[in-house]
Specification:
Helix content is about 40%, strand content about 10%. The protein is of the alpha+beta class. The protein has one domain. A hairpin with a 4-residue loop joins strand 1 and strand 2.
Length: about 110
């Protein structure tokens, strides 16, 4: 699954492992989705309504704590990957070009 912002213009994350979860927005009381999902290959999904998941977690607080810890880890890992991607692009845009001494700027053609 490709998760992207602004109608597919920016790939935010690739869901690539069996059992990996996405679509957490409804669990955090967001009124709109933060990304759009697109299947890149044949995919089998399980859809779970956020309110139903919340009801189950409220009945089982110990499981809820584990669930939300795992969600925090997942979001933290994705955030770190985003930082790495931004840093990588930033370094590439300001690195010297092929030993010529020219510094690439943000608007420079490739």
């Amino acid at each position: 699954m490709k998760l992207s912002f602004k109608e597919g213009t920016y790939v935010a994350y690739l869901v690539s492992r069996p059992g990996e979860v996405f679509g957490w927005s409804s669990l955090l009381d967001r009124e709109v989705y933060s990304a759009t999902a697109e299947a890149l290959t044949e995919t089998r999904l399980v859809k779970m309504p956020g309110d139903r998941v919340k009801t189950v977690l409220e009945k089982h607080p110990e499981s809820a704590m584990r669930f939300y810890r795992r969600l925090c880890k997942t979001l933290g890992d994705r955030l770190l990957k985003s930082y790495e991607a931004i840093t990588s692009v930033s370094h590439a845009m300001t690195a010297e070009s092929h030993g010529t001494g020219q510094i690439l700027s943000m608007g420079a053609p490739h």
